[in-house]
Amino acid sequence: MRITVVMNEKAGTLAQGDGHAIATGVRNAFAHAGHTVNVAAVKPRDMQSAVQRSITTKPDVLVVGGGDGSLNGALNMLGRAPIALGVLPLGTMNLTARDIGLPPDPVDAAKAMARGTIAPVDVANLNGTRFLHAAVLGFYPWMVLDRDRARRRRGLSKWPAMIRAGWRALFRRHELEIDVDLGTDAGDRVQLRTPLLVVANNRFVDGAGPVPTRASLADGELAVYVAETTGPLSLLRLAAAVAAGRWESAPGIHFAACRSLTVASSRRRLRVAVDGELMHFEPPLSFRLEQGRLYFLMPSGE
Question: What 3-state class would DSSP assign to 18?
Fold first, then answer.
């Protein structure tokens, strides 16, 4: 196959290691498996243009080296182009990379993909913006905003800034008043007051721990998680449940599965974390599932 790899040279793993050695290892992994490969490491500000140029060359596979945000950017630029997508885990969480079973080392990940296969996966869509992992409303987008401010103003690294934001979030009110229509034949529509609404592209494994993990990217459902809290103490209990990965078994979290979802609000704009990136949308928010509409390079099981 013809494979193009575009890596964010400032992504955590690449910035902390020997970037040239990693790029060479990735190139050799694909080349030794018989693929024609082109590898480019670019500055963060050049990722979008580099990905766009790569799409115009029409490779069989475009592999994005970065975090979940970089992967989301490539997904939305890809549109309906007949190009498969792949990922090298160079970010902080690497949620999609974890879910498909990639090893955390980028060279090992490239070796696994070089022997892998292309398979269809589901994509979620929010008002025209596609995402692979999850879209989150409520206190988590505020934490992302506060984290990014702390990194700019205080020079904190990502994890200390996020821990600080999580502590600060406990003492703020984050409740959203929303109307939710699950898009079912029964016309299920409810009014909610919630500090957290998560819409995931396929459901999380319950009890898997602090990193939200999915068993499949192709089960054909949107997984909706709605939290119910009444103050800082219940918000703390919710945070503990989420840290344990109790997305369906925690008493303060309600779960539903659907293929489409509409969220209405009286607010002019809603802050949403989409695949970890902060975005703003005008309501109503229309979520829908694009079942099997993306081809993804999966690692071999060896």
Answer: coil
Distance CA 195, CA 227 (A): 6
**How far is CA 91 from each of CA 95, 119, 224, 292, rounded to the nearest angstrom?**
9, 23, 25, 25
Residue that has been written with the tokens 């498996």 in this structure: 33
Domains, the chain, in order of start with CATH, read 2-115 (3.40.50.10330), 134-290 (2.60.200.40)
pLDDT for the residue numbered 225: 94
**pLDDT of 236 above 90:** no
Longest dimension (CA), the chain: 58
Residue 268 DSSP SS3: coil
Three-state DSSP at 245 gives coil
What are the pLDDT digits (tens) for 38-59?
999 999 899 999 999 999 999 9
pLDDT per position as a tens digit, 93-146: 899 999 999 999 999 999 999 999 999 999 999 999 999 999 999 988 888 888
Question: What is the per-residue burial (b if ≥16 Cβ within 10 Å, else e) of 47-86?
Answer: beebbeebbeeebbbbbbbbbbbbbbbbbbebeeeebbbb
Helix (H, G, I), strand (E, B) or coil at 97: helix
- Return the amino acid letter for 84: A
d(CA 102, CA 29): 14
Taking CA atoms, 218 is separated from 72, 100, 272, in Å, by 17, 11, 24
Token pair 């988590």 is found at 140
In this prediction the pTM is: 0.91
